[in-house]
Amino acid sequence: MATMSALDPLAMFRLDGKTAIVTGASSGLGVRFARVLHAVGANVVVAARRGDRLAALVADLPGSVAVAADLSLPDDRERLVAATIDRFGSVDVLVNNAGVGHKVAVEDEDLDTFRLAMEVNVTAVWHLSKLCAPSMIAAGGGSIVNVASMLGYVASAPVKQAHYCASKGAVVNLTRELAVQWARKGVRVNALCPGWFRSEMTAGMDTDEGSLRFIGQMSPIPRMGEEHELDAALLLLAGPGSTFITGQSIIVDGGWTAR
């Protein structure tokens, strides 16, 4: 057994030499995730539709690579993974962060809105996981972090977005199923489920008095989360600190779902 002097708990959060794909990395939480993984030594490949924003991000992250891609398109998903393996030889970590959603009542929600949410938020998660798994298995293991939401567990109303809640609930259970299928092959699959954080999808909530009052009244920790408050959970799930964790969700929501 290792002695106390030999312990290095912080090493469990390092990803030196590992390769990580982060989707939805042109804004908000995706940008933060890419920066955090790069800071602990990972080779980071960032993907999103807005190539100009990706270029600005990789300019700040030496050695990282940008792949402009529309994750609603199967060919773009395949190109992203192929480009990553071609550049770095393998994929060790996949952070499925890309997602879509907006406020709309069911009565006004059309089929195209619902279908797009399912394609980007669920099908792309399944497809990218499927594309990356062979590389992870060949390397002896890897980690998939699916960015779901606390709204995969509870309704969002009075904020109306059935397409988003349905898709994130699907991601939570897809995470469980992929985890069980791949556990004995060394691939861990877990979900990171944020609550109310600042992002393009919550734009304006952080300055709207009614929204802040709603969050303050409903959340045990009465505020929105700060982006750095997801760092530790991301690093736990992505890195070697979670080698005995799979099929689980870490809900970072200030206690919202505990009520």
Which structural traits does this protein have?
Rossmann fold, alpha/beta, about 260 residues, globular, 7-stranded parallel sheet, 7 helices, 7 strands
Please explain how this structure is put together.
This protein is α/β, with parallel strands linked by helices and 259 residues long. It has a single domain, classed as NAD(P)-binding Rossmann-like Domain (Rossmann fold, 3-Layer(aba) Sandwich). 40% of the residues lie in helices and 14% in strands. It is built from seven helices and seven strands, in the order βαβαβαβαβαβααβ. The protein has a seven-stranded parallel β-sheet with strand order 3-2-1-4-5-6-7, with helices on both faces. Strand 1 (19-23), helix 1 and strand 2 (43-48) form a beta-alpha-beta unit. Helix 3 runs parallel beside helix 4. The radius of gyration is 18 Å and the shape is globular. The termini are far apart.
CATH-assigned homologous superfamily: NAD(P)-binding Rossmann-like Domain
Q: Give me the number of helical elements.
A: 7
Quote the distance from N terminus to C terminus.
41 Å
Q: Give the oligomeric state of the chains in this entry, treating copies of one chain as homo and distinct chains as hetero.
A: single chain
Q: Taking Cα atoms only, what radius of gyration do you get, to the nearest Å? A: 18 Å
Strand content: 5-15%
* Major sheet summary line: 7 strands, parallel
- Fraction of residues in helix: 25-40%
**Shape label:** globular
